[in-house]
């Protein structure tokens, strides 16, 4: 028996940190969606948990978030079954696209099936939160409002139709470093989350994009000028909106028309090595 799970990349249409909890963790309010750039996770029964990847540099031991997800599920279910987990990596690493979290969530969904556990998505999301704050969202991997420390995931239904162009500069960003550095003095403009939600409910692209923003963007962009340069290029080439995803450094742009998205994508390729034209799932 082999179970195959797709692990899509996520982008943050909006990202706000409302306050810090006493333990330093952020209280998030984020609108997230997934795009069709995915890792593929293959799971087979085995005596112990093993993780392999085709990446050549990712850890294949307990440091891998996929391994941690499998262990968390074993512990929650109180079982000793193992699995061989192979990750075919396509999502850029440490990019703000949640690749590791999505692999972890795919492992939770896949092992839930392999081990016949019958957990609901909400239960898997709770287990996933112990691995990383983006894992609960990735268990769903559909457009959602995400709150709390990442554990409150409210699916939102269909988005207005648009194309997404992702551009990943050649720097890797450590999410914990950025999250520690954020305070009220260096935060970027807050999104108008209600406006983003209203735009999605009305399937109105302009209304949705008018509310979009990411408070982490100013913090990461102050360290990596590539981010502002990519945003400026995107706008110059005709993107309707350009914004950093997560803690960066990937910048994404949105276009309603495919022809315009193709033009932006082709133009960006001359400027940035890693560019992807994708659609929301
Ligand atoms: P987020 O926005 O959720 O912080 P990210 O896209 O910025 O995610 P990831 O690609 O998930 O970052 O990787 C972050 C770190 O996790 C890297 O240092 C990487 O070595 C480690 N890691 C562990 N397991 C994985 C995995 N399966 N895929 C990618 N990275 C992993």
Automatic annotation (TrEMBL):
Any Pfam family the entry gives: GHMP_kinases_C
Native species: Lacticaseibacillus sharpeae JCM 1186 = DSM 20505
MF terms (GO), sorted A to Z: 4-(cytidine 5'-diphospho)-2-C-methyl-D-erythritol kinase activity; ATP binding
Location of the active site: 10, 134
Domain GHMP kinase N-terminal span(s) in chain numbering: 64-141
This protein's pathway: Isoprenoid biosynthesis; isopentenyl diphosphate biosynthesis via DXP pathway; isopentenyl diphosphate from 1-deoxy-D-xylulose 5-phosphate: step 3/6
Residues annotated as domain GHMP kinase C-terminal: 199-272
EC class (word): transferase
Gene Ontology terms describing biological process: isopentenyl diphosphate biosynthetic process, methylerythritol 4-phosphate pathway; terpenoid biosynthetic process
Binding of ATP, residues: 92-102
EC number: 2.7.1.148
Alphabetically ordered keywords of this record: ATP-binding, Isoprene biosynthesis, Kinase, Nucleotide-binding, Transferase
Protein family (similarity comment): Belongs to the GHMP kinase family. IspE subfamily.
Catalytic activity: 4-CDP-2-C-methyl-D-erythritol + ATP = 4-CDP-2-C-methyl-D-erythritol 2-phosphate + ADP + H(+)
Annotated protein name in UniProt: 4-diphosphocytidyl-2-C-methyl-D-erythritol kinase
Gene3D superfamilies in UniProt: 3.30.230.10, GHMP kinase, C-terminal domain
Role noted for this protein: Catalyzes the phosphorylation of the position 2 hydroxy group of 4-diphosphocytidyl-2C-methyl-D-erythritol.
SUPFAM superfamilies: GHMP Kinase, C-terminal domain, Ribosomal protein S5 domain 2-like
